[in-house]
Specification:
The chain has 11 helices and no strands. By secondary structure, it is mainly α. It has a single domain, classed as MetI-like fold, CATH 1.10.3720.10. α1 packs parallel to α5, α3 packs parallel to α8 and α6 packs antiparallel against α7. The chain is globular, with a radius of gyration of 20 Å.
Length: about 220
């Protein structure tokens, strides 16, 4: 049982950092694609959504090739700064971020596209700057959709398995997250540990889905 709590704490760290990164990047990219039209926009949207449908092990392999010592990013970081990403907590965060990103990006873009342009234009007519329009009009109207995506992204990052295992491995107390710990416990015949980890993960996922349901536009409109 004692091995369950380090895995839970590590998973919470990974999911929190990954969610924060997805919030910043997903909201920014979602706003950009919702607001501006340019050649290749649909292709970018497709590529950014790809982690949602790509097998996690395949995605993990791509990350392993990219972030490894012989990869473009990993090799440069190693040669320039001596930074290692593979089999580290940072590697686990990157894997979880990539996997959870579409779940934050897509709702954020949809939320921004649902904002009435006339309200934004009215704010501009009143002399509010573009930054002011975003913070005072667009974001307050889109925040429910963004938050719903963030909650889904957190749940996805918390339960990430395939890509994390490929990139970060399974080092107890260092990179062994909840889902990986469940796999290891089952393999080792530790049913009590596996049952506890599965229960914790299930409770968190149910709570997140209930929260997302409360934030759904249909639920809000009926109040």
């Amino acid at each position: 049982m004692d091995g369950a709590w380090p895995a839970l704490w590590l998973s919470l760290q990974v999911a929190t950092w990954a969610t924060l990164l997805c919030l910043v990047l997903g909201t920014g990219v979602g706003y950009a694609l919702a607001r501006w039209r340019f050649p290749g926009r649909d292709l970018i949207d497709t590529l950014l959504t790809l982690p949602m449908v790509m097998p996690p092990t395949v995605l993990g392999y791509y990350l392993l090739v990219l972030l490894g010592r012989k990869g473009w990013v990993g090799g440069w970081l190693h040669d320039t700064f001596g930074i290692h990403l593979i089999f580290t907590l940072t590697g686990a965060v990157i894997a979880a971020t990539v996997v959870a990103f579409p779940l934050v990006f897509k709702p954020a873009r949809a939320a921004f596209e649902a904002v009435d342009p006339q309200l934004q234009d009215a704010a501009r007519v009143l002399g509010i700057s573009e930054a002011g329009v975003f913070w005072r009009v667009t974001l307050p109207l889109a925040w429910r959709g963004i938050l719903a995506g963030v909650l889904l992204g957190f749940a996805r990052a918390l339960g990430e398995f395939g890509a994390t295992l490929m990139v970060a491995g399974s080092i107890p107390g260092k990179t062994q997250t909840l889902s990986i710990a469940v796999y290891e416990a089952v393999q080792a015949g530790q049913d009590d540990v596996a049952n506890l980890l599965v229960l914790i993960t299930s409770v968190v996922c149910v709570a997140v889905l209930l929260a997302v349901g409360k934030l759904a536009p249909g639920r809000v409109a009926t109040r």
